[in-house]
Specification:
This protein is mainly α. The protein has 8 helices and no strands. It has one domain: dinb family like domain (Four Helix Bundle (Hemerythrin (Met), subunit A)). The longest helix is centred in the first third of the chain and has 23 residues, at 43-65. The relative contact order is 0.23.
């Protein structure tokens, strides 16, 4: 269930969850960030993945606003194919360094904040997001792709750090 119901709520939860995630990853060394788990996923992979999903959301929003086709989750994939999509994403991001993954997260987070800040409550929550073909508003999609992903990443990372 989404927590935010207004632009102010969305900005607050996005800031809070991002800051928690950044505080969690601030103490991680390169060698810890790249250790793979049993699913062949590292902390670096999770951070880069979260940055990618913010980019996906920004693309969905832009495409909808421009009356272009919006592909959820991505062109050529259905929601039930996320494991395959995420595996291919990890492969595509495999050469990304830990500092680059953090920089990518910071950059996409700023783009997300810029978009949210530029929108009104009505644009965020007044109607379904254009092109989405469902009832979710742009604000709900922003929360799902931003703060909710930040929260789950921080949870995964804390668990991984205990295991390491």
């Amino acid at each position: 269930m989404p927590a935010a119901q207004s632009k102010s709520d969305l900005l607050d939860t996005t800031h809070v969850e991002f800051n928690k995630l950044r505080a969690t990853i601030a103490r991680i060394e390169d060698n810890q960030a790249t250790v793979k788990d049993e699913d062949d996923t590292s902390i670096k992979d999770v951070v880069a993945h979260r940055a990618h999903w913010v980019e996906l959301y920004l693309g969905w929003y832009r495409d909808g606003q421009a009356n272009r086709d919006v592909y959820f989750p991505a062109r050529g994939y259905k929601w039930n194919q996320l494991k395959a999509y995420n595996r291919e994403l990890r492969n595509a991001q495999s050469d990304l360094s830990w500092p680059d993954a953090i920089a990518l997260l910071d950059s996409t987070h700023q783009k997300l904040l810029d978009l949210i800040t530029s929108m009104s409550d009505a644009e965020l929550y007044g109607a379904p997001m254009k092109g989405a073909h469902n009832d979710w508003t742009a604000g709900r999609w922003a929360e799902a792709s931003g703060s909710s992903h930040y929260r789950s990443a921080a949870k995964y990372i804390r668990k991984r750090l205990k295991a390491l």
